[in-house]
Structure formats: C-alpha cells, structure tokens
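Morning F.,

Quick status update on the modeling queue. The single chain you submitted on Monday has been processed. Sequence for confirmation:
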Amino acid sequence: MLWTNEHAANLKQYLESHTLPRGLGTKESACSIAAINLAIDGRLTDNTPDCMSEVLGKAIINLQDQMPDDMRNSDRYRAMLMTAPGTGREKEEKRLAVLMDWMWGTVLPQLQTDADKKGFGDEWRIMCEQRTYESASDASFAARCYGASLAAAAARAASFAARADYDTACAAYDAAYAAVCAAHRDFWQKVDPIGVLERMIEV
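Structure tokens below.
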C-alpha cells in the first residue's frame, strides 16, 4: 500500500477538524493511528498500515495514550503525525534503537534523584550507563529492597528491553512514567515524547 497525496489531504483535513483522544476512539474522535487509517480507507482501526513503520506505529499508540491531552492535540504533534505514514519498514532496527536510546538516556534517568534519596542511586546510575540486562536486574532488585515498587517495575521491564524487545521497552517506559509522575509534574517537558517520535521518523 502506498501513502498518496489524497491520503495526506484526508489526514490533514481530519486533524484540523477533530480531537485526538486516548484509546481507539470513534470516527468522530479517533486516535492517532485510527485517524491515519480513516484517511486511507475510512476504517476505524489502530492497526499500523502497511505503508508505515510498525515500530513507529506502536510507539505512537503507546505514547499518545500516556501524554497530556493538550500535547497530543498540539500543532507540533499533528505535524509529526502528518509525516508518520509512508515511513515504510526498511529501517525498523534503527528506529527501535532511537526509541531505546531515549528510554535509557532520557526517561529512566528522571528517577535518579528519587533513587539517590531512597538508597539505590548507584545501581540506578550504573543501569542507565551500562544499559544491560544484568545492570537493570540489579537496579530492580535494589529498588525492590528499598520498597520502591514502581522503580523496581521500571528497571525489571528495562532488563527485558535490554534484549531489544520492543514491547518490553514500552513497558519500561510506562513503569518509569508512573514512578516519575508521582513526584515530578514537569516530566513531559523533560522527556519530550514528540521529539523521540520526530527522530524516529527522520531515521
């Protein structure tokens, strides 16, 4: 399937006149990937279309459901979404590498201050630096010993993500997000989820 100028015009029109919700939504208010599918063939589905990177599609679904409503409906997010279809699937490993680098280097380090305060800062720092299954497992164990269950879940998921599994990379992000948001209101500005999606598209 090719992404055509007609499809692009349909998507542009939809984005300019509809609100993007969490979850699949409806034809009157569809999620990011569903809006793309509506532009292609009028079907309400969040399956990543064949013309688009599957890694990118899954990342968009995961992040759009977590980010604040105003960010998901911002001009910058909509502009990113216009460039997502047509990315193809020839560079999936490179796009996954961008996402993983963001998880290790941007998202998980947001918990460093809390880890330092609660006694497992060294293990957390080593995990973020080494980015290995072993170091993430150690960080998870240390966090659990200090009663930091959300951080432990984030590190455990990261340990699986170290084996380059996309779904567990998302799980690590989700767990870190839950833990960080409990203490930091400026989380979204710091991690810039639209930025990582833009970089995945530009690969």
